[in-house]
Design brief:
Radius of gyration: 21 Å
CATH topology of the largest domain: Aminopeptidase
Largest sheet: 7 strands, mixed
Shape: elongated
CATH superfamily of the largest domain: Gcn5-related N-acetyltransferase (GNAT)
Number of helices: 7
CATH class of the largest domain: Alpha Beta
Number of domains: 2
Strand order of the largest sheet: 1-2-3-4-5-7-6
Length: 203
């Protein structure tokens, strides 16, 4: 059992180093350090216990700091001809394909494009068409380092964006993958019982 605890601690620390999300890295590293503290106590390896207790304290401090940090969000509409839009799509092409394999900007009729700015950094891209009375979501992509749902909650929060989608009733979206479906549920979309893979959220 003691060896299993040691392996578990090592695995948590190793996995934490594989993630690019800073908050997730800190949480996993904290869990690994705490398990190492238990392991150090069981095996009477006091240096292991002391070092990992120190590491756990550092991780906890950073987690509290990250959680309490106030980010500033803004929405920035862009034209389809904007070079920034083309560069963003090209740079994140692989990630976009994983979640939206059927996305094709050129095939959309009168698309509307909005960058989600986080502390003035374009971290997300939202592309939709107006299909009154609904907003049809074709792309809702956020860069990997910023996938903590803050951008999504800002985008889909009516009180924070009272004018952006004024006059429309629902956001509608089609799931491109199981991960995307799980994401839609987490940000408040409900699956349409009549159409498999289709989701909607009241604006």
């Amino acid at each position: 059992m003691t060896e299993i605890i040691g392996y578990l601690a090592s695995a948590l620390v190793a996995v934490s180093l594989l993630t690019s999300n800073v908050l997730r890295l800190r949480v996993l590293n904290l869990a690994g350090a705490l398990v190492f503290v238990v392991y150090g106590g069981l095996t009477r390896a006091w240096p292991v216990l002391a070092v990992n207790l120190f590491v756990a304290g550092i991780d906890l401090w950073y987690i509290i700091d990250l959680k309490s940090r106030k980010d500033v969000f803004k929405l920035m509409p862009v034209e389809t001809r904007d070079p920034l839009l083309a560069n963003f799509l090209a740079y994140h092409a692989r990630g976009i394909w994983q979640f939206f394999p059927d996305f094709d900007l050129a095939g959309l009729k009168a698309p509307r494009c909005i960058f989600i700015l986080r502390n003035l950094m374009p971290v997300g891209l939202f592309i939709y068409t107006e299909e009154s009375p609904d907003i049809k979501v074709h792309l809702d992509y956020v860069a990997e380092d910023y996938r903590d749902l803050k951008s999504a909650r800002y985008l889909f929060s009516r009180p924070q964006n009272p004018e952006t989608f004024k006059g429309f009733s629902f956001f509608t979206a089609t799931s491109g993958s199981p991960k995307h479906a799980a994401y839609l549920r987490r940000v408040g979309f409900e699956e349409d019982g009549e159409k498999k893979g289709s989701f909607k959220k009241k604006i």
